[in-house]
């Protein structure tokens, strides 16, 4: 059906689930990531001409030369992580080394900088929490003292607490610092690079729920939202996702989808995007941030939607007809399995980490995904479990033994 070869920057769990979707459609994928045993490479060995080495590329997705090497092997390039070398993606496209890059390198670059991303959303009339640059607009930062002054000024504007954020390289809350009061400004600046990285401050959003919407965008600009879901974070890492979201005002899920579609329509290039939102007490929805790729909050689509986010990403970047984004079950949830120990060889911790996965094997409607990561480093995403059900009540019943195993293991 499709002879074009797809290259992916990054070969972690998102790449692995993308490879699974591609393999069903018999689409050839080549991956770039450090090491030959990255999660996605494990499930897709492509022998080179000599029959033993692999066609995948071993190297960093930030390494320009490695990106070029991958580009030469494929027709279409995409990403599973946004922290890539976007200017080199633009170069390989401009030089005709690869025919297409999705989403566009300019979109990836815009989204990489969370401050620029927010400015873009505001310019497009989309709702976000108030924010302001801290200590100047330079991406490289200025000085710690200028940033401390900037936090104080932001505090005067927004009050405390406020969220201090690193503009780039953020994930799992690692670029964030909650400045509880004026006296914590120095601590926050120190924690986020001490003046060496561009920062911005956001007004605290006392949300009642966190919402996420996956949206697929075709190369011609058609956008299709998946249902709005509720995400619960623990220590800034996604813990559970339930779909569809239940809200007291039944209009809210549709409003979230519309905002997410409007936002994704503003970005160039095809593919799936994850839109994170805050639902406020008065029913207002604010966009928190957008990921230009499949997203943790969309894992549930593999079992619970007509077309998974991974297959729709593939269809979008290849210009194939998009698949339905509707749920095929009334109720579904996903729980992440996180590593429990800093010691990768800690056998007891490995057994405990796997306890919810083992428990899920006895649960009807549960599907476990393990990513093939080595060891179980604390806080690392090792796998996830999705449960589908015919009602919310059945979902709760089915989730119970899995969540119980998780709580017992983490006690
Ligand atoms: P991800 O892993 O999703 O890329 P990230 O490191 O980019 O995360 P954010 O999504 O900006 O970080 O923030 C992480 C979490 O911190 C949010 O999911 C939310 O729970 C909380 N948070 C972020 N911004 C605010 C805010 N302005 N007010 C209150 N809480 C916030
Ligand atoms: Mg982020
Ligand atoms: Mg986030």
Automatic annotation (TrEMBL):
Single GO MF annotation: ATP binding
Pathway involvement of the protein, from the record: Purine metabolism; IMP biosynthesis via de novo pathway; 5-amino-1-(5-phospho-D-ribosyl)imidazole-4-carboxylate from 5-amino-1-(5-phospho-D-ribosyl)imidazole (carboxylase route): step 1/1
The entry's keywords: ATP-binding, Decarboxylase, Lyase, Nucleotide-binding, Purine biosynthesis
The keyword Lyase belongs to this UniProt entry's keyword annotation: yes
Domain ATP-grasp: from-to ranges: 118-318
Single Gene Ontology BP annotation: 'de novo' IMP biosynthetic process
Catalytic activity of the protein: 5-amino-1-(5-phospho-D-ribosyl)imidazole-4-carboxylate + H(+) = 5-amino-1-(5-phospho-beta-D-ribosyl)imidazole + CO2
Entry's EC annotation: 4.1.1.21
Statement: the UniProt record of this protein carries the keyword Transport: no
Family to which this protein belongs: In the C-terminal section; belongs to the AIR carboxylase family. Class I subfamily.
Name of protein: Phosphoribosylaminoimidazole carboxylase
Upper lineage: Eukaryota, Fungi, Dikarya, Basidiomycota, Ustilaginomycotina
């Amino acid at each position: 059906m499709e002879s074009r070869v797809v290259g992916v920057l990054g070969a972690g769990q998102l790449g692995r689930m993308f490879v699974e979707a591609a393999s069903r459609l018999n689409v050839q994928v080549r991956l770039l990531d450090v090491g030959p045993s990255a999660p996605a490479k494990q499930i897709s060995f492509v022998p080179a001409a000599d029959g033993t080495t692999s066609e995948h590329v071993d190297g960093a997705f930030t390494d320009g030369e490695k990106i070029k090497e991958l580009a030469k092997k494929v027709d279409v390039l995409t990403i599973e992580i946004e922290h890539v070398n976007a200017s080199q993606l633009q170069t390989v496209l401009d030089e005709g080394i690869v025919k297409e890059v999705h989403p566009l390198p300019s979109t990836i670059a815009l989204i990489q900088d969370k401050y620029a991303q927010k400015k873009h959303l505001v310019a497009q009339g989309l709702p976000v929490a108030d924010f302001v640059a801290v200590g100047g607009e330079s991406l490289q930062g200025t000085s710690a003292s200028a940033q401390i002054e900037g936090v104080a000024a932001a505090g005067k504007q927004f009050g405390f607490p406020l969220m201090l954020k690193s503009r780039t390289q953020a994930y799992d809350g690692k670029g964030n610092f909650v400045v509880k009061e004026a006296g914590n400004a120095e601590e926050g600046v120190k924690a986020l690079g001490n003046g060496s990285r561009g920062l911005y401050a956001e007004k605290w959003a006392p949300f009642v729920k966190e919402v996420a919407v996956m949206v697929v965008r075709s190369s011609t600009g058609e956008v299709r939202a998946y249902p709005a879901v509720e995400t619960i974070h623990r220590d800034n890492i996604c813990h559970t996702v339930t779909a569809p979201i239940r809200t007291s005002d039944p209009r809210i899920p549709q409003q979230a989808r519309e905002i997410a579609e409007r936002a994704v329509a503003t970005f160039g290039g095809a593919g799936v995007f994850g839109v994170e939102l805050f639902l406020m007490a008065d029913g207002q929805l604010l966009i928190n941030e957008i990921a230009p790729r499949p997203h943790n909050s969309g894992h549930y689509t593999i079992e619970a939607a007509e077309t998974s986010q991974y297959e729709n990403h593939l269809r979008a970047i290849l210009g194939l007809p998009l698949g339905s984004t509707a749920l095929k079950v009334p109720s579904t949830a996903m729980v992440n399995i996180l590593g429990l120990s800093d010691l990768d060889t800690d056998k007891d911790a490995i057994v405990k980490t796997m306890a919810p996965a083992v428990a899920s094997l006895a649960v009807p409607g549960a599907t476990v995904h393990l990513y093939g990561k080595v060891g179980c480093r604390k806080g690392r995403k090792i796998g996830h479990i999705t449960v589908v059900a015919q009602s919310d009540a059945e979902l709760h019943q089915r989730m119970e033994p899995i969540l119980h195993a998780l709580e017992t293991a983490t006690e």
